[in-house]
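FAQ: What does a multi-protein file look like?

Like this. Sequence, then tokens, then the next protein.
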Amino acid sequence: MDLQFPADPALLPHATPGGVCFIFDANPGTRSVALSGTFNSWVGDACMLERVSATRWQATLPIPAGRHLYKFVIDGTDWIADPANPWISEDGQNNSCLTVDASGAVLMRQHGLSAAAPGPLHARAALASPDWLRDGVIYQLSVPAFGGDFDGVRAKLPYLAELGADILWIMPFHPAGIEGRRGTLGDPYAVRDFDAIDPALGDAVALRALVDAAHARGLRVIMDWTLNRSSVDHPFTRTHPHWYTRRADGGIYYAVPNRDEFAGFDFTDRTLRRTLIDSMRGWLERFGFDGLRFDDSDITPGDFLDEIRADLAALRPDIALISQSYDEFHHLAACDLTYEGGTREMLRRCAEGVADNAAFARYWNESTYSFPRGALRMRWLEDKEQGRASAFLGRAAHRPAAAVLLAMDGVPHILMGQEFDEPTWTGWQVLFEPYRLDWNAFDGGLYAHYQALIGLRRQHPVLRTGATAFVDALPPGAIGFTRGDAGESITVLANLSPREVTFDAAPAHVQPLYASGWQGDGATLAPYGWMIGMPDA
């Protein structure tokens, strides 16, 4: 996220012989401090800090290259962000961040990054991604929740085509684990067989028919892949136990706490890597998937991601790989798209009056120019691990927030039901029981809003690829920016507040393409209004 306060460099994580040094200043009565993060699978007691004074605790840990999230664990119970580090994760889970480059240097996000003063990684070009991904709008769905089975989803493809989404992301459809199962159906991300289909959803013929029908409508199809683990009762745990992480007594386990239904892979085994890649290839070859989305890729070795990319791109040169991470290094050789959840949080802050357009612009600049040049980010208001946008932002602010999201750079993501304000989704845990979207709650006005925004994005390439420039000196609650290139410029204004706002600094003579509550004569927007427009000819 945007940097919340000036940092004391002496207290920040920093490179030192042996790795990265972490420092924590605790209350005098503190009994223990541990370091937990993506670098040790979030184990709460894997790295204990040493008390070096009455209040200071310290530890040095070797950390691989890439973005890492972490917290301190105080007295074994309190998990807190690093109070000395102003860089908080974009995932909505209040984790502290740091990035380590290949030389071992620690790259902390800096204030003031911009096109004129980019971060060190921006000098490196991101992996070239296919145009269909860059130009697309992603729609993520669960087969049983959205359509019941493959045939039910296929029957709803006209709905998605009318909405305008052109990339269909299908959540896991493998058989789920039984041992340690949570709920009646279990976690769909606890995969019991990577090469099989859950028979409750249909068979291979039905899946192929779904993919073919999507392709016939111009939709690309992404398969969700659980990357770093299987269910604890996967046959591999019996036939190849050496492919898994194991305790000192030899027992298989998953290092992430409170995930007893999972068994974690040990990717030092080359045969395991080859087996998983071959399985991925099989799905691409048999069913024609256009890409894969990797779950929990932030705790998967980067060199394995690079291997996957090299192998699958040889099979499908226009493949797209989506990484569930915020890792700058994933863009260099492995993945086309990483997550970008900070836009959602900044929109909430603007709606609540605790941030303004200048803060939004600072966040955009700092997050854009700290990444490799040309890196594609997946922007979202809803994610499977979060609740509904209307609950997070406020129902009234949802529409102007969607206008901002669909006009921004990157690749927009929509979670099933987001487009009609479906009320029952609270997170992917609802899938542990029989669950269907509540189509009776359909908000046709919101659906039409998303439809119009996606249509504008498709009609005007500048909304997909144009340069972004933020408007200066906007009133509280307002967001404003332009998307432009040599041939076209579009202005985007949104009011996330319950008050009318006036845009004194807004570009003059704008002809609205799509607006609500806009009064051009006075350059005002009604509460929760928006305006997307072009200069008069």
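And here is the next protein:
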Amino acid sequence: MAPPTRVNMFRRLIWAARLGVLLLVVVVAISLDASSSSSHRNEVRQQWQTKADDISLKLQSSILQNIQTVWGLAANVSIQPDINGQRFRELASVVISLAPELQNIGLAPGFVIRHIYPLEGNKAALGLDLTAQSLSPEQIDALLDSRREVFSGPINLVQGGQGLAGRIPIFEQATGEFWGVVSVILDLEKLYSSIGLDRLEDGFNLALSSSSDITDTESVFFSTGSIPWTNPVKSRIRMRGTTWMVFAEPAKGWPDHPRQPWIFRGSLFALLAIIAGGVFWLTSLMSRDREMQRRLWGLFELAPMGIGLFSVHSNRLLRANPTFESQFGKSVQSLDFFDQPLDVHGEPLANRPGVQETLREHARISGLEGYYMAPGHDEPSPIMLHGLQLDNYGNEPVVWLITEDISERKKVDHLKNEFISTVSHELRTPLTSISGSLGLLANNAVGELPEKASKLAHIAYRNSQQLTFLINDLLDMEKLVAGKMPFRSEHYVLQDLVHESVENIATFAQQRDIDLQVSELPAVTVHVDRQRLNQAITNLLSNAIKFSPAGSSVDIFASQREESVRLCIRDHGEGVAPHFREHIFQKFSQADASDRRASGGTGLGLAITRELMTRMDGTVDYESIPGEGATFWLELPVAG
């Protein structure tokens, strides 16, 4: 039994395991919730990033489309460097009609604007030197080196609003000399409208800036709101000469969790509850199992009967309680010890199934008696064995063997047997005289009796015979147990012995309307006491006839084995109840012990048969299926 400190330690470990698992599950649940929220935020940001990239792409595409239209005008000028104002206005009007986002087009030879269309509202731009106003040296170098358009802006327009300035370089086709530039102004309001920035959905915060820092408010030239920005997504618009940034984010800020977080969190909570409940249930089972083990080992240690735990594989003794050790000391180290029982005289008990063989066949034994030599004793002690084989004990099958010292019971039985023997002997002589006298009276040997007196005499005679049978059985049993019954074994042919026994009981079978069916028997010789074997066969036949329904049969057959022959007697009655197996060969045992049982008898027949077969080196046993009859057999060694 475990000490209290170990029990308390185990309980602390159980609670520590419960709290540890609960804490782990909570941490995992929080981590999963945080991961889910982070994943949702990333998904939302990715959606907004896609929107910002789409706006950036549309804006850049619209700008390039407008500039591409102007390239046709630049191509004409490169062919006709001396273009006049009339021809310029004709070409510019066509370009303006094709690119409605253009506010004006200027022609600037040597970077000085000489012509502009439309002239109305743009006269102030005539004579403007672009190198002094909006083109930096770097932009001029990029313009000349790449021969591609260069952008500036956004710029504040004189006529109001903001615009994006684009300069397209012109090189004379004939000489390749730099001629000047075509300067165009794109109206940003029209540009925004063309890509739908004035029709953004509610909750869409958007800003355009010439800086990559959203906090640089002076660089922001378009915004749908004035709220403080938290962490907007960004998309870059790269144009030669300038770069714009598109910033976007939800007006209500980035979500901390999905729209319906309690669905996910509720699922996590349910999972947490299930796991915590499962852990608590499992640990409770462990605690109960531990408590049961403590109680079991407490009973094991304090049991008044010996208990030994043996390995099935090696037969080795694994553990024994103090009672077992006091019974056998150190002499028992293997289960083989119990396969060598002795009889009451200290002689080896032959032809009895061993403990291991019985366990292999039935996985349990009960009430198996034998004499074993105990330490410090000159004579063997009577021990009753009970055992059970378990196939799951730390992955090693084991045998629990209970050893009960029945010395006191044997002493009581001996006193009882002496008393019964004495009484039986004292009763036998007067009972024989009484039975004989009643027989004479019943058979009218002393004169014919009146009908009522004759009936009473027959009843008395029949009951006196029954008492005689009982006393004879008691005396036979006493002689067998005491070893006083003489046995004279000789060689006999089994067929002759069986037919003799069948003839002796044929009259009883006819009275019960039972047909005795003898099958062909093997021609074997057995070494037995003729009278005692006849008595054993008669006992089995008598029982089979008693418990068979009228009109049925009793089958007698035999099967020969290597060194033995089995004589079987099968009836077609109700069979033997499974719970009666442990008691069927004990003295005074009857399945129906009430005074209303259908079949009479002393309950000694099978006990006597077992003792007789033991003395003749044979065995008796049976098999039965309830409701389908029973088959009893006598197994005898074949004579050599």
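Q: Is there any per-entry metadata?
A: Some entries carry free-text notes. For the entry above: The chain has 13 helices and 21 strands.
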